């Protein structure tokens, strides 16, 4: 296993690309697991799996079949808790507490009801 703490922190773009090429070769050709710790969001595009830590806990995981775009997953801990990505919470106005609905094939997560009994996240949506 190879641990790398901010391996490109002080490098220019070309130097950073060389470092990641070497790390990928070590992984692919030698079977070495590479664990990179960084605060640089650009690094996540260089790897197949990104685990985001927030407040000391595993928050989300992004899996990429190859370089580029991937799917983001929330991590469910052993007692059933999960952390939503901060961007989602902000975008949908999720604060302190959310309302859950059990749907046929998924769980709905909704903002807590406003004082007037409506949901900010469901305005204009018909309820069954």
Describe this structure in words.
- The model is unreliable at 123-128 (pLDDT under 50).
- The protein has helices at 13-30, 86-91; strands at 2-5, 34-37, 49-54, 57-63, 71-74, 98-102, 107-111.
- The chain has a domain at 85-128.
- It is 19% helix and 27% strand.
- With 128 residues, it is α+β, with helices and mostly antiparallel strands.
- The strands form 3 sheets. A 3-stranded antiparallel β-sheet has the order 3-4-5, with no helix packed on it. A two-stranded parallel sheet has the order 1-2.
- The protein has 2 helices and 7 strands.
| Biggest β-sheet: strands ordered side by side in the sheet | 3-4-5
Helix-strand pattern, N to C?
Answer: EHEEEEHEE
Q: Give the N-to-C terminal Cα separation.
A: 52 Å
Number of strands: 7
The percentage helix is 10-25%
Largest sheet: 3 strands, antiparallel
What is the averaged pLDDT score? Answer: 82
Beta-strand percentage?
A: 25-35%
Task: Tell me the Rg in angstroms.
Answer: 19 Å
Unreliable stretches covering 5 or more consecutive residues: 123-128
Structural class of the helices, strands and pairings?
A: alpha+beta
Number of helices: 2
Shape: elongated
Q: SSE layout and pairings?
A:
Blueprint: E1 2-5, H1 13-30, E2 34-37, E3 49-54, E4 57-63, E5 71-74, H2 86-91, E6 98-102, E7 107-111
Parallel strand pairs: 1-2
Antiparallel strand pairs: 3-4, 4-5, 6-7
């Amino acid at each position: 296993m190879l641990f790398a703490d901010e391996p490109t922190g002080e490098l220019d773009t070309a130097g950073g690309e060389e470092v990641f090429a070497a790390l990928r070769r070590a992984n692919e050709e030698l079977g070495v697991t590479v664990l990179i710790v960084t605060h640089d969001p650009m690094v996540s595009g260089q790897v197949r799996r990104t685990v985001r830590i927030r407040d000391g806990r595993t928050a989300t995981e992004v899996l990429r079949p190859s370089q580029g775009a991937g799917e983001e997953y929330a991590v469910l801990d052993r007692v059933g808790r999960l952390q939503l990505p901060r961007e989602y919470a902000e975008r949908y106005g999720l604060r302190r507490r959310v309302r859950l609905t059990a749907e046929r094939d998924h769980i709905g997560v909704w903002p807590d009801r406003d004082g007037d009994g409506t949901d900010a996240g469901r305005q204009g949506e018909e309820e069954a």
